[in-house]
Design a protein that fits this description.
By secondary structure, the chain is an alpha+beta fold. The strands form seven sheets. Strands 14-15-16-17-29 form a five-stranded antiparallel beta sheet, with no helix packed on it. The chain has a four-stranded antiparallel beta sheet with strand order 1-28-27-26, with no helix packed on it. A hairpin with a 7-residue loop joins β24 and β25.
Length: 445
């Protein structure tokens, strides 16, 4: 005779302490849960609405400069230390956690054109309109001691940018030429030029550290190898690039900020067309920086906004602006991937959250689990009309909205014109040019 009995393991349903949550067994058979998808859709919709309710990206404002902020540099070892340079030649070192200025240096006469930190974080370099390169100690001098640079190099022309090697004691500057310097010498080791009047940006690759790139005044992007005697390749675009940034995780990708309101992500192995065109700004893009994970990038524009793009996304996922913020000149992503720093014309450095609705401070295990669950739900239903409409809507100032509408009308008019020309021309005489191919004039080797 068989007797059927229920056998249960007490560990599956008995709490260890009275403070624990009750353990509830769950059967994953879909026939027992006929309303699971509608229930999850409702939760996803509510989570999307709550994201908008709690979206407060602005964290702090750092006041103290007496002129517009021209450049911002992160400390390579300290998350809370940031260095900023202004248009009156003043350099300030900030503590972000305390939101206070630690040190002020009158570094140059005229604009501070560029700054970079040494890879070890012991010192930083500045260049300005007074044709000098100055190296400063990161630590403030003792009480009563005058703040003097460690080293000063007087150049023949104005330097417009500087960047330090990620592993060695060398740095690169740009002006009329791109120069490679050794910290111990007062003359450049090597100079590069390729038929360009001047350069406005130079950047070392953080992964392939011998590789660097520069933006020229002839609308070109030039790649160099410090081990070679001549530049490697040059891409000429339809409009000038203001700056560029390398992807910190994938050595062969870089993004450039262009005067035609767009950003272009390039693969150095295939420079004929950009990988992605990032569109949404309505004025010239002045600065760009990749996140430490390499999955997103942040851009600063003359249209008084900051936008965050996915590395493969054509349109921004987030736009930040305030009433007081003027033309944003420089922007940086913090090394912990949580914050964004921006410097603008009205003498303020602003600190923003990279994720607008993220809760700051310590989170309990239940809060983390709920946040992760809501994130997955939003990803699952992100293309449903109601969820997508709420998630993608951003409130914009009236002037910005007008410029965006005007730009959209201009693009549609140009598209209609191209279609009409092609319709009334000989078949095949006017090829279809994609958006990616429009902006590259030539690739020179």
């Amino acid at each position: 005779m068989k007797v059927k009995v229920l056998c249960r393991n007490p560990d599956d349903y008995v709490r260890e302490t009275t403070r624990d949550i009750q353990r509830v067994p769950r059967n994953y058979d879909p026939t027992l849960h006929p309303f699971e998808v509608p229930r999850e859709y409702t939760r996803a919709l509510n989570a999307t609405k709550l994201q908008k309710v709690f979206a407060k990206p602005f964290v702090a404002s750092l006041d103290g400069h007496r002129d517009g902020i021209s450049c911002i540099v992160k400390h390579p070892k300290s998350l809370s230390t940031v260095i900023s340079g202004a248009c009156d030649g003043e350099v300030k070192v900030w503590n972000l956690s305390k939101r206070e200025c630690l040190r002020t240096v009158q570094a140059h006469e005229g604009f501070v054109r560029g700054m970079c930190s040494r890879f070890c974080g012991t010192s930083f370099f500045t260049v300005g309109d007074d044709k000098t390169i100055k190296q400063w100690n990161m630590e403030a001098p003792g009480y009563g001691v005058r703040d003097e640079p460690i080293n000063t190099i007087l150049g023949k022309t104005v330097f417009t940018g500087i960047d330090h090697h990620y592993k060695e004691g060398t740095f690169a500057t740009c002006g009329q030429t791109v120069d490679i310097w050794d910290e111990q010498r007062s003359s450049p080791l090597r100079s590069f030029s390729w038929g360009v009047d001047s350069f406005n940006c130079v950047r070392f690759n953080p992964v392939e550290t011998e590789l660097l790139a520069s933006c020229g005044s002839d609308r070109s992007i030039i790649l160099y190898d410090t081990r070679e005697a001549a530049p490697l390749r040059k891409v000429i675009m339809k409009m000038r690039n203001n700056t560029l940034s390398w992807n910190q995780m994938e050595a062969y990708y870089f993004v450039c900020a262009n005067e035609d309101y767009n950003l272009y992500t390039y693969d150095i192995r295939y420079l004929d067309i950009p990988v992605t065109v990032h569109m949404d700004h309505v004025s010239a893009v002045l600065d760009v920086d990749y996140s430490p994970t390499g999955r997103e990038l942040v851009s600063a524009s003359f249209d008084k906004t900051i936008r965050i793009f996915g590395k493969d996304a054509g349109h921004s996922r987030e736009v930040y602006h305030t009433k007081r913020m003027q033309h944003v000149i420089c922007v940086r992503w913090s090394a912990d991937n949580k914050y964004i720093m921006s410097g603008s014309d009205e003498m303020n450095i602003r600190l923003w959250k990279a994720n607008a609705s993220e809760k700051l401070g310590l989170l309990s295990a239940r809060e983390k689990a709920a946040a992760n669950y809501n994130k997955k739900l939003i990803e699952k239903f992100q293309y449903h009309p109601q969820v997508k409409r709420i998630a993608t809507y951003r409130h914009l100032p009236r002037e910005l909205l007008r410029q965006k509408r005007e730009q959209r009308e201009m693009k549609l008019a140009q598209r209609r014109k191209d279609v009409n020309i092609r319709k009334h021309s000989k078949p095949g005489s006017i090829p279809v040019v994609t958006e990616k191919e429009k902006h590259v004039v030539a690739v020179v080797e």
